Amino acid sequence: MLELETIRVAYGQATALWDVSLSIGKGELLCIVGPNSAGKSTLINAVAGLHRISAGRMRFEGQDISRLAPHRFCAQGIALVPEGRRLFTEMTVRENLELGSYLRAARRERARSLEHVCALFPALEEKLAQPAGSLSGGQQQMVAIGRALMARPKLLLLDEPSLGLAPSIVLDMFTAIRRIHAEGIAVLLVEQNVGMALDVAERAAVLEEGRIVALGRPEELMARPELRRAYLGIDDAEDVLLEGAGAAPGATSGAKSGAMAPGALAGAGGAAPATTAARH
Ligand SMILES: Nc1ncnc2c1ncn2[C@@H]1O[C@H](COP(=O)(O)OP(=O)(O)O)[C@@H](O)[C@H]1O
Ligand SMILES: [Mg+2]
Question: Which chain residues have CB less than 5 Å from ligand 2, an ion?
Fold first, then answer.
């Protein structure tokens, strides 16, 4: 569905993405993790048409979108939920949501889309007439996602949707992401909540200093000690020490590797049970 071929993005003289190649299949959920300043937002914004690529090629559903004007990306079926939400805080929730459906095709579906967003985020329904700025951070994030969905995208781009949210709201957010994905929308998710992101993702990429340094299924990535140390705060040396100290191997690795399994990682925050059922 989306193919990035050795794309490069620079801010003036400073290159932020170096020859990044990545593809997302129809309806796939791919997450990108990596440290601050790795280029995650740059990548997602390039796919949204906000940054021109200086080299390489981007294709969406077979069509070259590398040189497409920024305002055309939405019509192609690509919608972005930017980092920091960017709502119009003085405008009502309903007005913010309706902004997402300004294109003719989406406008025709506006009423149905609004119902759909309210079904996905029930908390928003009774707040439609309130200024967006009066909502909690989590609810504002729901409005931002809702606004993107009002455009009826085929590919949803989410830049750190859980940033700054309380843990209980983060769970709701990931539940919503699973549901959106279950409806057949492809999702490119940038997250600093690595455990949760790897739990929902079908594939994940690790971006460092503008380059993809690892790409694979979450369980493959988590089997790599250096990635576990760098991104999950799990140090394998501790496992060895514990087992060496005579604890029953089953018990030790049960507790430890249980914490490394995708479901269990998010399970630390309580999200595990929904995973498998919701993913397929
Ligand atoms: N508007 C900008 N102008 C100049 N440099 C930028 C701009 N936005 C981001 N950068 C630089 O590009 C690199 C990647 O940033 P970003 O994509 O925001 O990373 P991430 O989202 O992974 O934290 C960083 O070195 C950052 O300082
Ligand atoms: Mg960012």
Answer: 40-41, 83
